[in-house]
Amino acid sequence: MSMIRCAAAFAAACLSLAPPAPASAQSAARPRPVAITVDADRVEGTLPPVWRFFGADEPNYATMKDGRKLLVELGKLRTGDVFFRAHNLLNTGDGTASFKWGSTNVYTETRDGKPVYDWTHVDRIIDTYLARGVRPYLQIGFMPEAMSSAPPGTPYQHGWRPGFDYKNIISGWAYPPKSYDKWRTLVYEWTRHNVARYGRAEVERWYFEVWNEANGYYWQAPREDFYKLHDYAVDGVRRALPTARVGGPDSAGAGGQFMDDFLRHMTSGTNYATGRIGTPTDFLAFHAKGQPSFVNGHVRMGISTHLKEVDRGFVKVTAIPALAAKPVVIGESDPEGCAACPGPENAYRNGTMYSSYTAASFARIWELAVRRQVNLDGVLSWSFEFEDQPWFAGYRQLASNGVALPVLNVFRLFAQLGPERLHAVSDAQVPLDRIVAEGVRGAADIGTIATRLADGRTAVLVWHYHDDDVAGPPAAIRLTVRGRQGGTATILRVDDAHGNAFAAWKRMGAPLNPDATQYAALEAASVMQPQPVVLKAGANGAAVATFDLPRQGVALVMLAER
């Protein structure tokens, strides 16, 4: 039985699908000693805030009650510098949201084929973003019904639902335009409208990219036709706003031959829209996903698969010298490939497996970017929310019914990291080459990132991750911070007992419809509460703190300014 069907029938029954290890089981095991050393005076480079990108298939959820609420929380992470990408922004329809679908009805035609533009729905979506401190990573797609070249009789809106074959999402929206000139004009008019409505300076801050994963199911035509679609769209954007930030192609995975040919076309091919050589390119984008499985009654994550694809993408986008220094966005970067899809292998999503995976995977993506000398600008988590669905139904999301999941708290911890990366070593951190090659199948990965904030504080992120969602001993952390003798410190935690509404819901008995009092309790349980940490004097003027970190736990220790 899928997580989704199980939640709809009786939510508590789902708890058998690989729940987080109970705290009692972990505390009974002997803690694993872990030494972490941070040098507060040794800056090793910068730590770009690449985590500030999010996205979803369903654009209309953004304007609904829980969507609006969640956007407020995303906007707070880094006001004005958080970006949201959504599919289906140009689809024909009435704006009603459903799984892997959305619409805005921006383009229709009169009987004699003249364009009719209506920006009402798409304006409402973008207005909702901007009012909450979020900006568009604007995906130009998919194909309006009146413009689609789909074969006669092809349905336009798909009827996919959780549990159906993923290929069933493909319908009339996935085809090229009947007229590329009309396609370019639509993009031009939309961009011109955005500049008029929001102002040139605002729209210059957005990202513009064309379509989604045109090397996969989402594009029902040869790849050269996509390059043509891309050229015409970029030309339409730049005609309306010559300074717009344009890029792509947001390929499925590193893109294979599709990406190789696309990059050559961008740099040395004849532009289909202009006849000139090359296509304007301000950033490059590809996708990378993991591959969890269900093994011996529990979820086993596939972080190695995820990181290998990241590395392949980095190698590709730096292979052509003219593009090697361009900013790179991993336009979807997730533990697996379908946020709405059910299955026991996806039962990691509600609890601390997802949050600890997020900390461990982002840490390695930062490392790989440094190794490959990639100008990494963004890592986009394809995770938002699903409106009016059963509590903790098992979707890949940041909140359930408006209540934050543990994974959202990890992004809140990321937001408190500083711009300067400090030298930090954990004697239990799995080396980069090993985790890329093998994942975490032996000893747990207990790692760290340390940063210095502009106000002089030191922030130390620590995670305790394993691919297997089974009980394990906690880590007994001894954190030594050189150059930070004295002062005060606090700790924020995400684990079974902290910042975890899912665990609180289970302790309530997994109510199908929490009442107002229970809802308030769940919201309170989702909030991380800072706790004081005792700093002791260590050798050579260092500060020392000790604390336990449960398996799948993530913590941020913040040391006050010296």
Automatic annotation (TrEMBL):
It holds the Pfam family Glyco_hydro_39. SUPFAM superfamilies: (Trans)glycosidases, Glycosyl hydrolase domain. Residues 35-526 form the Glycosyl hydrolases family 39 N-terminal catalytic domain. This is Beta-xylosidase. Residues 1-25 form the signal peptide. GO terms for molecular function: hydrolase activity, hydrolyzing O-glycosyl compounds. The active site is at E213 (proton donor). The keyword Chaperone does not apply. InterPro entries: GH (IPR017853), GH39_cat (IPR049166), Glyco_hydro_39 (IPR000514), Glycosyl_Hydrolase_39 (IPR051923). GO terms for biological process: carbohydrate metabolic process. It comes from the Bacteria. Belongs to the glycosyl hydrolase 39 family. The lineage of its organism: Bacteria, Pseudomonadati, Pseudomonadota, Alphaproteobacteria, Sphingomonadales. Keywords: Glycosidase, Hydrolase, Signal. The keyword Hydrolase applies.
